[in-house]
Amino acid sequence: MAIITFAQVKGGSGKTTLAKCTVAEVVARGGSVAALDLDPNRPLGRFFARIPELAHVEVAIPDGERRVSMLVRDLAARHDTVVIDLMGAATNDTQVALALSDLVVIPSQMSEDDFRGGIETWRQAEEAEAVARRRIARGVLMVRTSAGAVRPRVEAFLRESYAQAGAHVLAAAFGERTVWKEMNYAGWVPPLHERDGNAAANFAAVFEEMMALIAAAAAAGPVAA
Amino acid sequence: MTTRRPGLTLPPLDDATARRTSPDDPRFGLAARLERPEAVREAVASGRVRAINAETGAGLIAPHATAQAQEARPPSRRTAPEVALSTKVPDYVLRQLRRRYAESGITIRNQVLFALRLAGVEVRDEDLRDERKRQRD
């Protein structure tokens, strides 16, 4: 399907939670998926090992011999989807992962630090597209938003601010829900275990928009030289 | 008549997004180039990279920095090769030498050489230079 990277040079924005949910969503839809965990804390493999439906998911980790490009090349040859979870900083891995991606999702909470980090990450993805000379779909995803119907003023403000900076923001947002926090402790993953629930519906909307971004980039043709 | 809502079904993953990425895709060559030490150094210099992942970037920066420092370092002015000398002294003597080093910055080696010169042993001026400061000269 695609190489999908969750990138944000500011830490704690929700990259890993989104990576877990994306892998679960692809598995729930019957797809073949693997992950590359560039967070030295290794949260992905630990999480997948506890969920029977995800225990088979291959999680690659780099070492001195196996570089990121080699690992992703190998995973992408054997799986339809590869999910890359980056460390929350502007590391040497960031530019490599962006250059490998079909889609870059930039999670952003409501803080100014998230906004600044989101813009910087967006710029790096733009650069990656220019260097790679191919379309790299990308979008900012507002996370930890209010799950209620009322959209807080700050979310609307940030959406507008991202748009003014030239960054595309997904219409769907990843809402603040207790179930995402409990996911690690309860082994209960909404995209797998409660697909007709609100949380799963929320992430499915995010996922559908991610897929639409990939399809739109593929349809847009090559990048002008 | 009551109608039941239909069960939920997952939309299939369409063909356009179901292709695997070929190992020959140019992106892998580009990514490999971005992993080279010179590319990482350029990214650090430009500010795009502000942290090195020790697991993927170990050895990318430090060896080059060491090599650069060696290149920038002027040649040694010593008049003879250095050889190791190991001996035992009373601990209070070593404590004094360490204290003098802390106060004056004169290394224990040079304190010993100065004392030997005062005692009549030939020690040339060039061999009393603190070579560790060459980079700051």
Would you write up a description of this structure?
By secondary structure, chain A is of the alpha/beta class. Chain A has one domain: P-loop containing nucleotide triphosphate hydrolases (Rossmann fold, 3-Layer(aba) Sandwich). Chain A is built from nine helices and seven strands; from the N terminus they run βαβαβαβαβαβαβααα. Chain A has helices spanning 15-28, 43-50, 68-78, 92-100, 112-132, 153-164, 178-186, 190-193, 198-219; strands spanning 2-6, 33-37, 58-60, 81-85, 103-108, 137-145, 174-175. Chain A has a seven-stranded parallel sheet, with helices on both faces. Chain B is elongated and about 110 Å long. The mean pLDDT of chain B is 77. By secondary structure, chain B is mainly α. Among the domains of chain B are: 26-72, no CATH class; 91-136, no CATH class. Chain B has helices spanning 26-34, 37-46, 54-57, 62-72, 91-104, 108-118. The interface between A and B is large, with 51 and 38 residues.
Low-confidence stretches of chain B are: none
Give the helix tally of chain B: 6
**Outline of chain B:** elongated
Rg from alpha-carbon coordinates of chain B = 32 Å
Order of helices and strands of chain A: EHEHEHEHEHEHEHHH
The major β-sheet of chain A equals: 7 strands, parallel
**Most extensive interface between two protein chains, with residue counts:** A-B, 51 and 38 residues
User: pLDDT below 50 for ≥5 consecutive residues: which ranges of chain A?
Assistant: none
> How many whole angstroms does the radius of gyration of chain A measure?
16 Å
- What is the residue-mean pLDDT of chain A, rounded to a whole number? 93
**Looking across the biggest beta sheet of chain A, what order are the strands in?**
3-2-4-1-5-6-7
Strand content of chain B: under 5%
- What portion of residues of chain B is helical? 40-55%
Number of domains of chain A: 1
CATH superfamily of chain A: P-loop containing nucleotide triphosphate hydrolases
